[in-house]
Design brief:
Strand content of chain B: under 5%
Oligomer: heterodimer
Order of helices and strands of chain B: HHHHHHHHH
Distance between the termini of chain A: 22 Å
Number of strands of chain A: 3
Order of helices and strands of chain A: HEHHEEH
Chain lengths: ~90, ~250
């Protein structure tokens, strides 16, 4: 598999991890929460980051009680995933 | 705003479009968000591996970059001609742009067969040096004009068609591109051009009208091909079962 790079999306990825810590959230809710914490990120940035995090299995999608797709932290994290998460902040 | 989602690759849209539209519909979206969506679409094209598609090697971006470069050089050159340059400076820029156009069509075939192609280039350069040494010159007049117009309509349009096919542009849009970039400008520009003598500024302006859309078309197709990626002509050998044409 090709190497996934976060580049400028490393910081939004960190905020998404923080926002998902309490539990699963839809993309719309996730955008609102990250904006509350981090300021203005756009929809393109959100989905670009979510796609990378899904691909790396840092987060996973589930269907919530309302039948909508939501995202949650995947668990348990392997040591490889922890290393990837640490790599986001570099 | 929701139309901007169409800029994303099809595989990406199949996975995220519904959620994406939900996000856009639920809240006010400003100009900065629109720019963010466009940048996100470029990112999605540059990283197809994010949605499980095959990773694009850098050589698949090469044809698009060459086409973009060719289009920009072509466009810049004719603007330069219109504003300042005397006719004796016409040769170099156009020659270089056409060279890049030829290089853009076969893709990273150029990389895979660099040594053989290099040998051909050496032969061409040798022939050009011989051409400088030997005392011959091209015939002037009607023959030259006919050859030029024919080359323009057949080779120029053909090259643009080939590169548009490689960029994944469908037949309808491709014909529109040809009409706007080649057929209409040539139809309008060449007859006007015929009414001017050598060195007339009006003739230069007509030349620019006839040729500028061509360069812009190459630049646009090149950007699309760079973003989408385009494999070498050898990567997709024709299958004997895939080439069947349905009877009409």
């Amino acid at each position: 598999m090709a190497r996934i790079r976060f580049g400028r999306l490393g910081e939004p990825a960190m905020w998404i991890l923080v926002a998902l810590r309490p539990g699963p959230k839809t993309a719309a809710r996730l955008l609102d929460d990250v904006r509350t914490m981090d300021g203005q990120i756009g929809p393109g940035t959100l989905f670009g980051t979510v796609a990378r995090m899904e691909r790396l299995a840092l987060i996973e999608s589930v269907v919530n009680d309302e039948g909508r797709r939501a995202y949650r932290l995947s668990k348990p994290w392997s040591s490889d995933q922890i290393a990837r998460m640490e790599g986001l902040s570099r | 705003m929701s139309r901007l989602v169409r800029l994303y690759p099809m595989a990406w849209r199949e996975r995220y479009e519904a959620e994406f539209l939900g996000v856009l519909h639920d809240r006010p979206v400003d100009r900065r968000d629109a720019i963010d969506v466009v940048l996100g679409a470029v990112d999605a094209h540059l990283h197809p591996e994010l949605i499980g598609a095959a990773h694009q090697p850098w050589t698949h971006r090469l044809p698009g970059l060459l086409a973009t470069g060719a289009g920009l050089i072509w466009t810049w050159f004719f603007i330069h001609v219109l504003t300042a340059a005397p006719e004796d400076e016409w040769g170099g820029g156009i020659g270089f742009a056409v060279l890049l156009m030829f290089m853009a069509v076969p893709g990273d075939y150029l990389v895979a067969f660099g040594r053989r192609i290099g040998a051909v280039i050496v032969a061409i350069v040798a022939a050009m040096i011989l051409g400088r040494i030997l005392p011959w010159s091209a015939a002037d007049g009607l023959l030259n004009l006919t050859a030029g117009v024919t080359a323009w309509l057949l080779v120029g349009a053909g090259m643009l068609t080939l590169v548009a096919i490689r960029a994944g542009i469908g037949p309808g849009l491709r014909w529109l591109l040809l009409a706007v970039a080649v057929l209409i400008p040539a139809t309008v520009g060449i007859p006007i051009l015929g009414g001017f003598g050598p060195g007339d500024r009006g003739g230069v302006a007509a030349m620019v009208v006839a040729t500028l859309p061509y360069g812009l078309a190459w630049a646009l197709v090149g950007v699309r091909m760079t973003v989408r990626g385009s494999a070498t002509i050898q990567d997709t050998p024709p299958s004997p079962h895939a080439t069947e044409v349905p009877a009409t």
